[in-house]
Amino acid sequence: MSSPDIPAPSTPALAAFTQLNEIPIVSLAIFFLRAAIAAIPAILLLKFGYVVVIVAFTVGGRAISNAMSLLSR
């Protein structure tokens, strides 16, 4: 099952994800999903230009940061 050098998952959700990830088609789907998510900034750069995308990511990043700080209070 698992090799001794890989630590056991700490949460039930992580354990379920690890079991799902062992299924080849699910692993492949997760790989393509990650690739698609990673390609989003490049697609936006090509479509809208550097300045617009940098400003959008900066504003979005600040909004996410502010929301996270409010949630952690």
Observed structural traits:
73 residues; flat; mainly alpha
Outline of this structure?
This protein has helices at residues 12-21, 24-48, 50-71.
Report on the architecture of this protein.
By secondary structure, the protein is mainly alpha-helical. It has one domain (12-71). 78% of the residues lie in helices and 0% in strands. It contains 3 helices and no strands. It has helices spanning 12-21, 24-48, 50-71. Helix 2 (24-48) packs across helix 3 (50-71). The termini are far apart. 0% of the residues are buried. The mean pLDDT is 77.
List the helices and strands and how they pair.
Elements: H1 12-21, H2 24-48, H3 50-71
